[in-house]
Automatic annotation (TrEMBL):
This is Uncharacterized protein. PROSITE patterns: NA_NEUROTRAN_SYMP_3. Its main location: membrane. It is found in: Membrane. Keywords: Disulfide bond, Membrane, Metal-binding, Sodium, Symport, Transmembrane, Transmembrane helix, Transport. GO terms for biological process: amino acid import across plasma membrane. One of its GO terms (cellular component) is plasma membrane. It is a multi-pass membrane protein. Disulfide bonds join 148-159. It comes from Parelaphostrongylus tenuis (Meningeal worm). Na(+) binds at residue 43.
Length: 263
């Protein structure tokens, strides 16, 4: 068939190499890129939250079963078609059968949706790192959205000190106090994103978010514009850096949990 001649040895000897899509330099580059795609940053961030909110170990078992039965076969199918045809999703599935063209179109639309979501997470991460290094350089204690009294710049934003007390009235009892249960992440969102009160309120234009999103898209474009050979060199470094940071956070959380008797 037409794809039986698409082997690396044949392509290197052929004068038509430029007509084909770029190939990975080594098989291990492709494997690392695939693993990085599956174990993305959002998966690491969402899995603990989903586990705690949906029953703990029972959810982990159901989640693992769904991965094995539904997710893994789908990923293997996509990778197999891509490696077999060496073409874009629409053309690749169309070459298998014209009726499968819609699958390729849906894959592109889904990828755009995932990219839009991922850039938002990465934008938050860049903002967090910026303010983290800013506080270190300015020699101020804590983070801006958790220690508002040390950051006059954030007093106009809905910023509250971490662990601050809130007073409320209940029947005949007055001045009852409670510690706010709002997480540091929600305080980060409120202070930096300044969400509007309702859907009909457009709110203010957030230039800081625009800047970090533009930077994220520039980084993404720089990583893929030179083809998969360049991508195969960039992805392992980024994946190992992200994995090392998550491992450090896990060790720190387990260590302090052990000290407090929570393990």
């Amino acid at each position: 068939m037409w794809f039986e001649e698409r082997s690396w040895s044949n392509l290197r000897m052929s004068e038509l190499v430029e007509e084909w899509r770029d190939l990975w330099s080594f098989k291990v580059d492709f494997m690392i890129a695939a693993i990085s795609y599956v174990f993305a940053t959002t998966n690491f961030l969402n899995f603990p939250k989903l586990t705690l909110e949906n029953g703990g170990l029972a959810f982990v078992v159901a989640y693992g079963a769904a991965l094995l039965v539904l997710v893994l076969p789908t990923i293997v199918l996509e990778l197999a078609v891509g490696q077999l045809t060496g073409r874009a999703p629409v053309q690749g599935f169309y070459n298998l059968s014209p009726v499968f063209k819609g699958i390729g179109i849906s894959q592109i639309l889904f990828t755009l949706l995932v990219l839009a979501t991922m850039t938002r997470f990465l934008g938050w991460l860049m903002l967090f790192l910026y303010y983290l290094f800013w506080t270190i350089q300015a020699d101020r204690p804590g983070l801006p959205w958790l220690n508002c009294k040390y950051f006059p710049e954030f007093l106009s934003a809905p910023c509250r000190d971490a662990g601050s007390m809130a007073n409320f009235t209940l029947a005949a009892h007055t001045k009852l106090s409670t510690v706010r249960s709002e997480s540091s992440f929600m305080q980060f969102m409120s202070a930096l994103e300044k969400p509007s009160a309702s859907i009909d309120d457009f709110g203010d234009f957030q230039y800081n978010l625009l800047i970090v999103h533009v930077l994220v898209w520039i980084i993404v474009f720089s990583g893929i514009c030179f083809g998969v050979r360049w991508l195969g060199k960039v992805v392992p470094l980024l994946f190992m850096a992200a994995f090392s940071m998550f491992l450090a956070l896990l060790i720190r959380a387990l260590y302090y949990g052990w000290l407090n008797g929570n393990i």
